[in-house]
Structures are given as structure tokens and as C-alpha cells.
UniProtKB/TrEMBL annotation:
Protein name: Por secretion system C-terminal sorting domain-containing protein
Classification via InterPro entries: Secre_tail
Signal peptide bounds: 1-21
NCBIfam families: Por_Secre_tail
Taxonomic source organism: Pustulibacterium marinum
Record keywords, A-Z: Signal
Domain of life per record: Bacteria
Amino acid sequence: MKKFYFLLLLLSTLQIAQLQAASFTFPIVEDVVVLQKDEQVKVFYNKSSLYITGLNEKATIEIYNMLGKRVADFSNVQLTNNFNKRLSLPMNNIFIVSVQTENFKKTFKIVTK
């Protein structure tokens, strides 16, 4: 058993020495980053209203509680840059909002306070 521990210690020491001897270089890359559509879309809940920004098309919006029960849904809603919908959700809860258009689908987590 002692031989096994000694062998294990020897192997791990060799691996650590190899890692320390290796040189790690990372190239510097300068790129212009264009945000994807899903990075531009924001969903949030504030003062009894659901807000969706960053989309300008018809969408289906579904809201689920954490148990998976659908608590609200809206079909063929015309979203503008700053869409808001009056919505009464229970306070101090977490909900999942699914936004789906013809070319876009993403789920968001919102917290009601």
C-alpha cells in the first residue's frame, strides 16, 4: 500500500512540474462584437407590469410559475421597442417568461417584488 501512495505522489509531482514548466500564452484579439438578438431583448416586471424591450414583431408570451403551471399567456401580441402589459402576479415569487416570435425564442426568469 505504501508503494502505491509513493507512486501516486511521484506521478502527481511530475504532472505539477510539467504544468509549471509549460508556458501559457494567450493571444490578444480585438474584435467588434455585435450583440445577438437574444442579448438585446430584456424582460422584467415592475409595479404590476411586464416589460419587454428589444423586439419589434408579433410574439407569443407565456408565463409559468416555478411549479410549471402556466399563469398567463398572450398570443399574437405586437411587440414594440418598449412593450408593457399590465399584469397582476403574486409578489415575492419567481416566474419563467417565454417569448417566441417567428425567428426568436428565449425564456427569461423574473422576480416579483
